[in-house]
Amino acid sequence: MICLKKLGEDRYIFFAAMLKYLKFAKISIFEPLKNDEMKKIVKSAGLSLLVIACGLLVFTAFPSNNYLRKAIRYTTPDLDDYRIFENRTVKAGNPQPWRISEQYNKTGIPAGRLPYFEQYGTVAYLIVQDTAIVFEQYWDGYGAESLSNSFSAAKSIVSLLAGIARDEGKIAAFDQPAATFYPPYATDNRKEITIRDVLTMSAGLDWDEAYSSPFSVTTRAYYGDHIEPLIAGLKPVERPGVCYRYQSGVTELLSFVVANAAGTTIGEYASEKLWTPIGAEQDALWSLDRKNGLEKAYCCFNSNARDFARIGQLILNKGIWNGKQVVSEAFIDEATAPASWLKDGDTGRNVDFYGYQWWRLVRNGMEVKYARGILGQYILAIPARNMVVVRLGHRRSDVKTSGNYPEDIDVWLDTAFEISATPALP
Questions:
Q1: Do 416 and 387 form a contact (C-beta atoms < 8 A)?
Q2: Sheet with 87-90, edge to edge strand ranges
Q3: Same domain membership, residue 238 and residue 156
Q4: Low-confidence residues of the chain, pLDDT below 50?
Q5: Cα separation values, 247 from 72, 138, 145, 211, Å
C-alpha cells in the first residue's frame, strides 16, 4: 500500500475504497457460505476485481489519462459541474428584467402531469408568452438565480455567435473552409470542410459521440484539460456536406472558428455580442478545460432558466432585442430551417429535424425551434404561440418519438399549452 500512495491521493483513496469493499464482501458474503467451491468462486471474483482496480490505478497514473481520474471520481455529468471546472465569466453588462404577466403563476401545473416532472428530476420550469413570464416553478433547492449546466443546448448558442460573426463580416461566408480560421485542418483533406458543414454536423470526422464509455473522446473532452489537441487530431472519414452525424467535437471546432475569426475567446465574444445585448440579468459561466484555457463550447454554458429563455425569445424575435438586431433575421431563418440536403447517418433519410446546431420538431401542427441538452435541458421556442418554454433537470426520456426527439419534450410543451389556455384561478 505504501508504493500505491505514490500514485497520488485520489488514486490511493480509490484503492482504499476497493479494499474496504473487499473487506465488506469477506464479512457479509464469505462467512455465510458453507460450500468450499462457492467460497473459491467468490474469492476469485474478489481478486479479479482487485486486479482490475489496480490496473486502472496504474493506467490513470499516466499524465495523458488524468481525465479518467476525474471521470471516476465524479462518475457522471451533473447540473452543477461548473463547481469542479475552471470557468470564464460571460458578463451580463446591461441587465433587463423580464416583464411579469398579470396571470403570473395563477395557473399551476396540472396534477396529472406532476409525476412526469418528478420522474425526470425537473429543477426549473418556466413559460414566457408575449414577452412576459407567465409561469415558473423550481425544485430540489434551485431557484430563479440558480445556475445550471446547459450541456448541449450550448451548441445553439455557439451557432448564434457564428451568425453574428458572419453578420459582422468576420466570417465572409459559411462556404469558406473551416481551415481559414483553424490552420491545423489546412494541410490535408480536412481543408475541404466548410463552416456550413460544421454548422450542420456534416464535417465527416471520426469523433465518437459515446457518453457511457470512460475511454471515449467525449469523456476525455469533458473531463480532460487539453481539448484543442483532441480536435486537431480528428481524422476525416467521410466526404463532408453529405451525411449528418451528431458530434460534440464539431461544435468545439466551430467555436475555434468563431473565436479565431473574432480575435477573442468565445466567452468574451458571447458577453459582448449576445449576453449583454439580450439583457441577461446574471453573469453566466462557461466551463473551461483548464485555468485560463478554452471553453468547452459544445456544452457547459451555465445560467438560469430566466436568462436561458432570452435565447428562445431572440429566435421568436427573428434576432431582434429591444429594437436592436443582435443577429440577422436571415441567419435565424437559415439556422432554424432543416438541413434537408443532408442524409441522416442513422436512418439514411433526409434531415428534417436539425439546422445550424438548432433542432426542430412539430407538435400539434405547430413548429418548435429548440436547443437541447443531454439531461433534459430545453429552450423551446413556439412561434405560433409567441411562447418560450425552458425546462432544466437531471434526466430526460431515453425513448425518441418518430420525430427524432426525446418523448419527454411533449410533456413540457403540452403542460405549457394547458397552462396558457387554462383560465386563471380566482
A1: yes
A2: 87-90, 284-287, 301-303, 148-149
A3: yes
A4: 1-34, 42, 58, 60-62, 424-426
A5: 23, 31, 31, 11
Within 10 angstroms of residue 264's Cβ, the number of other Cβ atoms is 15
Inside any domain, residue 426: no
Asked which of 61, 94, 109 is the last residue of a domain, the reply is 61
Burial of 393 (0-12, 13-18, 19+ CB in 10 A): buried
pLDDT digits (tens, 9 = 90+) for 51-88: 555 555 545 444 556 767 777 776 789 999 999 999 99
Q: What is the pLDDT of residue 48?
A: 57
Asked if the structure places residue 72 within a domain, the reply is no
Spatial separation of the C-alpha atoms in residues 78 and 91, rounded to whole Å: 23
Q: CA-to-CA distance for 125 and 310, rounded, in angstroms? A: 14
Total number of domains constituting the chain: 2
Grid cell digits, residue 139: 425544485
| Distance of alpha carbon 379 from alpha carbon 389, whole angstroms | 6
Domain boundary among 11, 26, 61: 61
Amino acid at 52: I
Instruction: Give the pTM.
Output: 0.86
- Residues 25, 170, single domain; the answer is no
Q: What is the pLDDT of residue 210?
A: 82
Cβ atoms 160, 314 nearer than 8 A: yes
Q: Which pLDDT belongs to residue 70?
A: 74
82: DSSP letter: G
Residue 14 has a pLDDT of 42
CATH number at residue 352: 3.40.710.10
- DSSP H/E element including 137: strand 132-138
Same domain, 36 and 98: no
H or E stretch covering 200: none
Could you tell me which residues are beta bridge partners of residue 236? 205
Q: Which residue has the cell 486537431?
A: 232
Looking at the structure, tell me whether residues 255 and 384 fall in a common domain: yes
Return d(Cα 117, Cα 345) in angstroms, integer. 32
Name the nearest CA neighbour of 174 among 360, 357, 379.
357
Provide the residue type at 302 as one letter: N
Nearest to 336 by CA among 281, 398, 382: 382
Is 143 part of a structural domain of the chain?
A: yes
In a domain, 67, yes or no: no
Domain boundaries, position 11 = 2-61
Instruction: For residue 365, give the C-alpha cell.
Output: 401542427
